[in-house]
């Protein structure tokens, strides 16, 4: 189930990143850096769901940190490919370094929190 949820997440991120969407009206409310927040959430979700799916599927003595490192690298690579595709394949999207940084920071945050969670260090004493 987690694998399907992860794949649906990736499909949704891909579609929202590459398709032309009309400007959404937020009722006159401006949220500063909302684009970067969305990028952070997209790649946080990528690593969180991908890490949980891989952890549930592998369930071997494979080190959690190594597994999360590979999921993190996959997210960064995927984010890079999406940014390049926005630059090359669309006329209505642009590639930005700040988007890449928000993607990477979201992926890194999820990897660090998921490592803590899966390692069992999340319990309060």
UniProtKB/TrEMBL annotation:
<keyword id="KW-0472">Membrane</keyword>
<protein>
    <recommendedName>
        <fullName>VanZ-like domain-containing protein</fullName>
    </recommendedName>
</protein>
<dbReference type="InterPro" id="IPR006976">
    <property type="entry name" value="VanZ-like"/>
</dbReference>
<feature type="domain" description="VanZ-like">
    <location>
        <begin position="35"/>
        <end position="114"/>
    </location>
</feature>
<feature type="transmembrane region" description="Helical">
    <location>
        <begin position="68"/>
        <end position="88"/>
    </location>
</feature>
<feature type="transmembrane region" description="Helical">
    <location>
        <begin position="36"/>
        <end position="56"/>
    </location>
</feature>
<dbReference type="Pfam" id="PF04892">
    <property type="entry name" value="VanZ"/>
</dbReference>
<feature type="transmembrane region" description="Helical">
    <location>
        <begin position="100"/>
        <end position="118"/>
    </location>
</feature>
<keyword id="KW-1133">Transmembrane helix</keyword>
<keyword id="KW-0812">Transmembrane</keyword>
